[in-house]
What we know:
Number of domains: 1
Number of strands: 0
Order of helices and strands: HHHHH
Distance between the termini: 106 Å
Coiled coil: 80-107
Helix content: over 70%
Largest sheet: none
Keywords: Coiled coil
Strand content: under 5%
Radius of gyration: 25 Å
Amino acid sequence: MSQTTLDDDELFGEAANEIRTDVESSLETTRAALPDTETIWTVEADNSLGVLNALHSALETGDAATHLRDAKKWYTMGKRADAFDDAEDLDAEIERLETIVEDLETAHEQVGDLTRTVPELRSMLDEVDTTEERDESD
Length: 138
């Protein structure tokens, strides 16, 4: 029976390649999970609240943050193990996607705040109009 033996360097090299592949795969999945630009840019609705609700939904990051976290986890593991000969491209892509996800989350939160504020403002303005009409009729 023939048995192949691998030395530690070969095993480490193989593991390093697998880690890089995992990071690249997670980054690709992150990019695929990001919202479509047209969905964010082109929103149709009958009123401002409808536009805000559609935009709020469009700005959701979905699974992108989870996939990015996986990429960062494997990248950190590989970096600490000094498994990468050249990882600047991975680092740059992680930073770029991290900025995009953070900006999407911030915008999502801001639009969510507006979605709650606009109906409140409408009610307050309606009350002012009603009070004004009542005062004019007296």
